[in-house]
Specification:
With 183 residues, the chain is mainly alpha-helical.
Length: 183
């Protein structure tokens, strides 16, 4: 297989595992509300997994040595900013809006990267990329609209159920009341 094929396979696997992780994170954050500890544990165990995989892929110990301050800064920046802060924000968003919102807004990263690459690096935007961006925006809007409608329907059903229950109780109380001969 070509490298493009493997890249697509890895990308699909990444997207599925990331989405699954966010869906599983919602009940975990409900039972374990300490966001900072949850984020630290997740990143720590991710580091352990990464080190095990990296030890099998790169066996030359010379390549593991940090050669310059720039490499150290890059590693620390990627670990602190790209991992800890982003993961903390995602945990907060999952607690506030649920995993659907976080998963949908992950698509915005692709749009932002394409826009920044075009503006800052001078990369060309192609018609396929623009059409893809438009489809992503339509999908994002559709999901947000669907979630809003779902919440609205759920609140109306709950309101109707409460009202019906109260009305049924009142009519049952009137039917069970003893009739008196007093006018």
């Amino acid at each position: 297989m070509q490298n493009w094929t493997w890249g697509c396979i890895y990308l699909v696997g990444y997207c599925l595992s990331w989405a699954g992780g966010m869906v599983l994170q919602a009940p975990v954050s409900r039972h374990y509300p300490a966001q900072l500890s949850l984020t630290s544990f997740t990143c720590f165990f991710g580091l352990i997994q990464f080190l095990i995989i990296a030890a099998f892929v790169e066996t030359n110990p010379e390549l593991w040595k940090i050669q310059s301050g720039e490499e150290l800064f890059t590693i620390l920046y990627a670990g602190v900013v790209a991992a800890e802060i982003v993961f903390s924000l995602q945990t907060w968003c999952i607690q506030k809006g649920g995993p659907v919102f976080v998963a949908v807004f992950q698509l915005m990263q692709t749009l932002l990267v394409a826009a920044m690459a075009s503006l800052i690096l001078g990369d060309q935007l192609y018609v396929g990329g623009i059409i893809g961006a438009a489809l992503i925006m339509i999908g994002l809007y559709s999901v947000l609209w669907g979630k809003t409608e779902e919440k609205r329907a759920g609140s109306q059903d709950q309101e109707q159920t409460l009202t019906k229950h109260l009305i049924d109780t009142e009519s049952r109380d009137r039917d069970d009341a003893p009739e008196s001969d007093i006018p």
